[in-house]
Amino acid sequence: QVQLVESGGGLVQAGGSLRLSCAASGSIFSVDNMGWHRQAPGKQREWVADITSGGSTNYADSVKGRFTISRDNAKNTVYLQMNRLKPEDTALYYCNAWGRTPLDDYWGQGTQVTVSS
Fold it and tell me: Looking at residue 11, what is its pLDDT?
């Protein structure tokens, strides 16, 4: 089992920045990739960004150029630096870690990000 704990959410004005963190513990050898998803009220959960164990990154078009995902393997932590935030970025942000089998798929409890206009 892998436990994921997110932190760093909060309330920020449009144009501001936040940095989310996700600390992994447990059987972390079973996961290679980590990423972030988000879910706004009344909407489906959507993928935001991910990063492989080797550091390759991918971003949703809606956040490309504004968000940066990174990881510190020594700390088993993944980060999401969010700049130039928009009201439409308001959502519950979830950390996700996954490995090579469907059983190796883990989610955190989420951290709320609210962007005011």
Answer: 98
Tens of pLDDT, residue by residue over 18-30, are 999 999 998 887 7
Cα 92 to Cα 106: distance, rounded to the nearest angstrom? 16
Alpha-carbon torsion (12, 46, 81, 20), positive or negative: positive
Query: Quick one: average pLDDT of 44-62?
Result: 96
Q: State how far the Cα of 18 lies from the Cα of 103, in Å rounded to an integer.
A: 31
How many Cβ atoms sit within 10 Å of the Cβ of residue 83?
Answer: 14
What integer is the mean pLDDT of 92-117? Answer: 94
For residue 19, give the H/E element and its range.
strand 18-26
Question: Which residues contact residue 85 at a Cβ distance below 8 angstroms, ignoring those fewer than 6 apart?
Answer: 12, 14, 15, 16, 17, 18, 66, 113, 115
Rounded to whole angstroms, how far apart are CA atoms 87 and 97? Answer: 27
* pLDDT score at 101: 86
